[in-house]
DNA sequence: ACATGTTGATGCCGTTTCGGCAACAGCTAT
DNA sequence: ATAGCTGTTGCCGAAACGGCATCAACATGT
């Protein structure tokens, strides 16, 4: 199904790879063919689309505009294809997800497994990144659905849903804090803490709170892996901070205890946003999964608020 | 600037004209070329796109799906072009408007004139239709902006704004009703009335109210032109019904008086919706005009509510 | 400073695609 | 039955495309 002129496809490949020859390799054509199509495009637009650096190509301003258009075209073509396919009953396609690490423990594997159980022809691609990288991948068209901490998102993205989860401390069952219902930051800082590095979004959630305190204690351990932090906390090394989402049902049968965090008497929230490219209609199978994702996250949000009712 | 494969453009032309030969004439190519491109498209999609009737072509279900995709592509191409053009400072393009007749007296000419005064390179195409035809033209991609009575709109359209205006009676200055501040339907029906035909949206606004009355009096005159109805009312022929919008400042220095309509003690509203295709990003110049349109209608809505404050 | 590997651009040439002309079959309305 | 419309199909010239080899320009490594 090759509706669109080769120039469109070639341009897209060159933009992604950042090089004409690399694009030619991906497309299985001669580099000269790619080069010519790009030149032809630039002639028709009347303005260069790339800046030729010795080491490859970089988009110019008009190039970025065209990139946006081409992305819209190709993504909408995907949707059209899926619409036609779903007409003959066969759903197949790939849902591409970019998300932060909190989802990998329980939410995403559960959802994907259950969805694959019902629609086996739909495959998945997931990539774990930092919050800002998630939004960036989405903007560049490298993912269909993005889940990230709800910061200010760029205007070319649309926030489909916003769910808030409580931030909390994670300690071993034998930890002195383990018997409390909730904890404050000060209480936690009396013990060795396992601090997240700036590349994790938890860092940016806790940083403003820590800055409010009179003293900024030395963290015992710094890490950039949610998993590692959790395992360290289970071994009694110290207090880790995570959203309840990252724990799932693990907290029941494991050595870990989750303690909702309070600050100045009110809970500390972590806002999770679900994002999609704004200028786009999703394929049916992607839309379907998106609905389930929103529903599931809403369900978890509700369940947690029952388990840890707001104190205020 | 011809990025896209001829098949796309040909398909678009065939869909609009409903005939291969007619499309060929529009495109200035031989009909055989168009025919082949369509056949090639159908082969690549793997399913017929048109039903061949003896008198022309009609879209099949997959054809309609492709039509939607092609429309998205071509409209987004327009936006890209305008983005590039606005980069070099020169705004030019065409804003295509479909609207109901109420706007033609004052709102639209005022706005277009003022906009052309500032951006002379932007041209306009306006088409006056019935409310449902406005929405249909928008769906088919034949207009960029639509203004219609706010009925239930199809899901592929987006309601940008919703403004409500009072419906009222229009009578000559010497008419017995002219001294009143407001009127009810019963009071009007005591006199000869100029009734709108079903093709005008006013008909559908008044019909449910008339049905509530005990008797349905014979209308003196039926017409399908807002203008004609206004002129008839000015000559004292009878009572016409219109939204305040259709009158503008004419009511001051003319023979006409506008009397807001009350029904069961509360005003009768006419909801005006501004619509845009949902799966679409507007070109900069269109977006700019749209903003002004929304602002202007909001302004008029506010002004009228001052002139005729709500009685309830 | 030199060699090497990379980048994108070009000239040449065979293949593919596209478009125009004319003729065809199918249908409709007069 | 005739005339007028429809879409389709061979045939052929023109335009576009892709592949190969080559070139100049630049970066990197020795």
Automatic annotation (TrEMBL), chains A, B:
Residues annotated as domain HTH lysR-type: 1-60
InterPro entries: HTH-type_LysR_regulators, LysR_HTH_N, LysR_subst-bd, WH-like_DNA-bd_sf, WH_DNA-bd_sf
One annotated GO molecular function: DNA-binding transcription factor activity
Cellular component GO terms, alphabetical: cytosol
Protein keywords: DNA-binding, Transcription, Transcription regulation
Pfam family, one: LysR_substrate
Record-stated family: Belongs to the LysR transcriptional regulatory family.
Role description: NodD regulates the expression of the nodABCFE genes which encode other nodulation proteins. NodD is also a negative regulator of its own expression. Binds flavonoids as inducers.
Protein name: Transcriptional regulator
Species per Swiss-Prot/TrEMBL record: Bradyrhizobium betae
């Amino acid at each position: 199904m090759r509706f669109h002129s080769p120039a469109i496809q070639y341009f897209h490949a060159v933009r992604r790879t950042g090089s004409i020859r690399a694009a030619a390799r991906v497309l299985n054509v001669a580099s000269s063919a790619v080069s010519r199509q790009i030149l032809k495009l630039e002639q028709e637009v009347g303005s260069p689309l790339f800046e030729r650096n010795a080491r490859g190509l970089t988009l110019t301003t008009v190039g970025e505009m065209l990139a946006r258009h081409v992305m819209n075209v190709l993504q909408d073509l995907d949707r059209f294809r899926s619409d036609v396919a779903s007409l003959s009953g066969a759903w197949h396609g790939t849902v591409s997800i970019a998300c932060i690490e909190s989802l990998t423990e329980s939410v995403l594997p559960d959802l994907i497994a259950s969805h694959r159980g019902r629609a086996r022809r739909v495959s998945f691609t997931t990539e774990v990144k930092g919050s800002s990288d998630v939004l960036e991948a989405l903007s560049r068209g490298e993912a269909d659905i993005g889940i990230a901490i709800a910061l200010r998102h760029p205007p070319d993205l649309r926030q489909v849903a916003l769910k808030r989860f409580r931030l909390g401390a994670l300690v071993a069952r034998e930890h002195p804090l383990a018997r409390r219902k909730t904890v404050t930051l000060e209480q936690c800082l009396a013990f060795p803490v396992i601090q997240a590095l700036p590349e994790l979004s938890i860092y940016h959630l806790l940083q403003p709170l820590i800055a409010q305190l009179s003293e900024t204690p030395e963290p015992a351990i710094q890490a950039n892996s949610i998993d590692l932090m959790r395992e360290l906390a289970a071994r009694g090394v110290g207090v880790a901070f995570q959203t309840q989402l990252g724990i799932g049902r693990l907290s029941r049968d494991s050595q870990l205890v989750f303690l909702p965090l309070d600050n100045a008497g009110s809970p500390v929230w972590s806002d999770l946003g679900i994002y999609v490219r704004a200028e786009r209609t999703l394929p049916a199978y992607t839309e379907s999964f998106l609905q389930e994702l929103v529903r599931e996250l809403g369900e978890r949000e509700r369940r947690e608020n029952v388990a840890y009712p707001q104190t205020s």
